[in-house]
Fold this protein.
Amino acid sequence: MVDASQPRSRSCGGPWRGLPAWARCALRGKPMGSADVELQAAPFSWPQNPRRSSYSAFWRRAAPFVALCLLVLVAYNRRSLLRHAQDAFAAVYYKSDPAMMGRSHAAFPSPVCCTGQSCVPKGGGRVVVLSTLSSPAYLPLFLQLECTLRMSNPGLELAVLLEPGLLPKSSERLLRKLGVTLVQTYPLEYPNTYEPRYGKNFVKLKAFNLTQYDAVLMVDADTVIVGDVAPLWSLPTPFAAVWDQYRWLGRHRTGLRGLNGGVLLLRPCPAVAAHMAGILESHPKLRFTHRAAEQDFLDWYFRYTGTVLPLEYNVQTAQSLVGNLTVGGVAPVVLHFTNQKPWHGREAGRLGHQFLCSAADLRRRSVAAGMT
């Protein structure tokens, strides 16, 4: 029991004990030092850890600053944060499934059109550099590919997979005048949450049906060919590609993972094309809806049978180009503008732009084709 005849506090106690004495008195409307008799017992509380209290006080003060920093980070890097979240989800969704590690012959037996040296016909056969156009916006990039290919590999056939009506008739006439073979095709697309435009890239699988060619070098429209690709035609393999490249922590040493779908060497085989189409229809998870679509599918399909090409055949400029050489000190053969695409042609000081055709070069190509 508490003796009510004795004042428990001479400094305006009450529910504000954490405040200074003058503040408690002000809140209770009493002068400083006035008697404050409390009839109820003081509530029981465990002894406080001074260190824990100091930590709590620190975080109470730091919380607004931390919240502000998080808001700024989200505002300026929301796309990057979203991509990291997607990567984390995909890592759990795909890598936790052993079947996604690669196509095993026991589970998905694949037909074979050639093995080893039988893949290389006598005399080399008919070969082609093939690209795709997913929209008219990529035409300026494709013209850079055409210009650099003519300079580095004169006489080599260039073709493009093209949906009917995608380009204006004038653009089609320009491509034909430049000696580009137009291969009519129809879309092969699956939805993709990682990057919606990736879903259209499955059209690359139609290259396996182009039996008029003995070998196809499939390249994206945002690549340029600046070196000799002739050594590729004699490789005794049905499929080859370069590792995908990334910067560790976004800025440091170049790392390698999976394959990159920007440059693919393949031997057409309709049986393989039909096998791929059947797998994609019957196993929706292998469409890699939450990853890089056809790139991850091809990496899965040829994981145990494909050939890895040297880095110089698909140099991702933002990840692996150092000056005029690759990160390994080798002259590039194919440059791939995966990040900052040269929509406006060559620009001084931009990475990899020294390998592009100048505006004068492109104009001469157009004039030579009779398109003034």
Observations:
- Confidence is low (pLDDT under 50) at residues 4-10, 36-41.
